[in-house]
């Protein structure tokens, strides 16, 4: 049985050591994982150093936006499709209009599966 009372201290690396390891990962045919294992460090640390050296942010910026998007339900006469095949159609279909965060608008008319619309909206936001 082993009892651990405190974790390993965080190591610090000099700029020279970082540069040497980054140069090692930049060699043709070299994998970051191999360099990390050889030096006993995490591959994610090497990847972070590479991003920093390239001037990219070390962490992804988390968008602080609402997970909800505006949803309009009702007749949309200016965009409703003209369905001439359906004699009972008045040209004004009930529909769903979703304004996505990226500015795109998704309009769906007729009977639709809500799960399919949600998947489509997610794909269009990417």
What do you see in this structure?
It is a single chain. With 126 residues, the protein is of the alpha+beta class. 34% of the residues lie in helices and 13% in strands. The protein contains 4 helices and 3 strands. It has helices at 15-26, 32-39, 43-53, 114-125, and strands at residues 71-75, 94-99, 105-109. It has a 3-stranded antiparallel β-sheet with strand order 1-2-3, with helices on one face. The model is unreliable at 83-90 (pLDDT under 50).
Q: How many beta-strand segments?
A: 3
Mean pLDDT over the residues = 75
**Alpha carbon gyration radius:** 27 Å
Low-confidence sequence ranges: 83-90
The total count of helices amounts to 4
From the helix content, strand content and strand pairing, which structural class follows? Answer: alpha+beta
């Amino acid at each position: 049985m082993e009892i651990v009372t405190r974790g390993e201290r965080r190591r610090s690396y000099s700029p020279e050591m970082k540069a040497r390891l980054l140069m090692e990962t930049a060699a043709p045919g070299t994998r970051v994982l191999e360099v990390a294992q050889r030096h006993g460090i995490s591959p994610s640390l090497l990847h972070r150093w590479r991003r920093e050296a390239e001037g990219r942010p070390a962490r992804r910026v988390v968008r602080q936006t609402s997970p909800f998007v505006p949803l309009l339900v009702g007749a949309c006469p200016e965009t409703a499709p003209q369905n001439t095949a359906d004699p009972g159609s008045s040209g004004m279909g009930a529909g769903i209009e979703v304004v996505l965060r990226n500015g795109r608008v998704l309009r769906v008319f007729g009977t639709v599966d809500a799960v399919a619309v949600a998947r489509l909206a997610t794909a269009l936001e990417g």
